[in-house]
Amino acid sequence: MIQGSIVALVTPMYENGAVDKDSLKKLVDYHLEHGSDALVAVGTTGESATLNEDEHCDVIKSIVDYVAGKIPVIAGTGANSTTEAITLTRKAKQAGADACLIVTPYYNKPTQEGLYLHYQAIAEAVDIPQILYNVPGRTACDMLPETVGRLSHIKNIIGVKEATGDLSRVKTIRDLAGIDFAIYTGDDASSREFCLLGGNGTITVTGNVAPRLVHEMIMAAITGDKDTALAIDIKLADLHKNLFIQSNPIPVKWAVAEMGLMGKGIRLPLTWLTEDCFTVVRDAMRKAEVI
Q1: How many domains does the chain have?
Q2: Does residue 155 sit in helix, strand or coil?
């Protein structure tokens, strides 16, 4: 089981929007050096919505190559079309990804049975470990714990990223899916409590900026060290909040650029962080001692 701090990696770009491979390698090296436990390639934070299919697959392959087996790479391969999700998942397997993270179909609002059949079809089509991803705040679709429980019985569906911020779902999903099913949070602000309640880790935005601290905090929480986890999380609290002061990944890309790890590139319809937000994000970075 993949556990700990799983960083939803930003995709560095030049100011013209082209993917910056040199900075991508620099980012991967930074996370290998600073203790991130796994990386998500081309998730929401990696701007999956604006990369075309060739770019999407190329970024996954590049991250896999740069990581070189040192930590797991989880590829974002979700789509609101089941056939498209199967294609992306198949290509991620060919690229060497260790697992895939598959968001619930967005915009078209499937039923719970539709969600079950969607994920069942992907799992049956591609023999790679798959992690469900529930983020109703973005998709307008909430995959209920009972549906997660049903899907957990499919052999290569190994876990769920639960990004509702609802801490009660940890126990509910655990009771339905069992001890061997991985339960990750997608909500940085509640990740400490989530892991203290039995979660297996976080798929984190904050970890892009403070990878060592997020790793140490999450591992302390997983092992039940409440005091250590709290002490670290206090340093991270402002990052958890202010990295979402505008739509993700706008603030986190600004912060990573501020650290000198990449340039100032983002794709429309997203725009660069506005100047009135610079101070609060920078102050949060100082509190976490990353600048």
Answers
A1: 1
A2: coil
